[in-house]
Amino acid sequence: MENGDDMSENKAALGGFEKYLTLWVIASMFAGFLLGRFFPGLGLWIEMLQIGDVSIPMGVCLFLLMYPTMASIEFKEIVKAAKSPRPTVLTLIGNWAVAPALMALLARLFLAGYPEYAAGVILLGIAPCTGMVLFWILLAQGDVAKGVVITAINALSTLLLYTPLAAFYLGVGGVPVPIAPIAESVILFVGLPLALGQISRKILMEKKGGEWFNNRFRPLIGRLAALALLATIIILFSMKGEAIAYQPLLVGLISMPLLTHFFIMATLFYAIPWLLGFNYKDSVTIAFISSGTQFEVAIATATVVFGAGSEAALATVVGPLWEVPSMLLFVKLALRGRRYFREVD
Predict the structure, then answer these.
(1) What is the pTM of this model?
(2) How much of the chain, in percent, has pLDDT values that exceed 90?
(3) How confident is the model at residue 8 (pLDDT cuts 50, 70, 90)?
(4) Residue 288 forms part of a structural domain
(5) Distance (Å, rounded) from C-alpha 51 to C-alpha 242?
């Protein structure tokens, strides 16, 4: 059937993978670390495989991660979500008013003697997530359609707000807006998967029926998303395995404001919607988008402003290492808190 229970559909799409997801993620992190540590040339080779600003291996993995997420929603739900402005407004406040100020405060608190590392961390705090966060919304049984609308608005907002906020919090004039990474990220990891997901959904629904789509096809592409997620983790850690091995204390120091920022933002923007009477699906969607970061934009900006070998650039690449384990932990915490919402979908 076309309209089913969201919870059962999400479980069908993800299969039994989520039951042991924590173990798989830890194993993938460890495998990536070992690859990067003992085969450092592998990480360099992967980083060289680029088209423009996009890493080909990472791009393929992120696309395969996003396609099942986009195929799981109906287009009419996206249209419906666009007519509900309250979650969007609250998320924009979180992304552009609270998140940058909080990250600037934490960077100066934890990295007072490391101004360039602080600058890289601040750049991460200013860049709201516009892609992979939709997978975590799906996993947490949030409103993916609403997430698509909000992330699209975030992408447009980034073009207008990223430069002035970066210049303000860094105290550096003329910070260039990284238009190319923003455009590429939105097109490749939101627009294209959304278009292909909706087209394939329509065709398969018409030819095979809703029961086949939900019970056969969605579990298949759910496994594909799971494999893409693990491959993404392995690639990320293989590229930074040597740096982690030789500078573990430095990586730990940079991680402190990043992790603190994530959990403060996630908790705050999970609790505020609850206090305002939002339902669980809207609340968890707001929480994930408000706490996520688009590390591609931050890395590109740090490279342009401070240089590829700068301490600021190094700080920005630590962010992606914590993205998956942090989001995964919050998925589990959010689902446990679902029963406290008045409306349970």
Answers:
(1) 0.77
(2) 26
(3) very low
(4) yes
(5) 24
Question: Which tokens hold the place of 264?
Answer: 């403060």
Q: Which amino acid is at 65?
A: L
> What is the span of the domain harbouring residue 165?
6-336
Q: Across the chain, which distance is largest between two alpha carbons, in Å?
A: 62
Residue 343 lies inside a defined structural domain of this protein: no
Could you tell me the CA-to-CA distances from 295 to 31, 122, 131 in Å, in that order? 22, 11, 11
Q: Which three-class secondary structure state does DSSP give residue 342? A: coil
- In a domain, residue 341? The reply is no
Q: Which of 157, 144, 173, 158 is CA-nearest to residue 81?
A: 144
Domain CATH for 57? 1.20.1530.20
CA 107, 289, 132, 16 torsion-angle sign: positive
Beta-carbon neighbour count of residue 203 at 10 Å?
11
- Contacts of 239-243 spanning 24+ positions with Cβ under 8 A: 239/36, 239/43, 239/46, 239/47, 240/36, 240/43, 240/317, 240/318, 240/321, 241/32, 241/33, 241/34, 241/35, 241/36, 241/37, 241/40, 241/43, 242/36, 242/37, 242/40, 242/43, 243/314, 243/317
The number of folded domains in the chain is 1
Joined tokens for residue 282? 């809207």
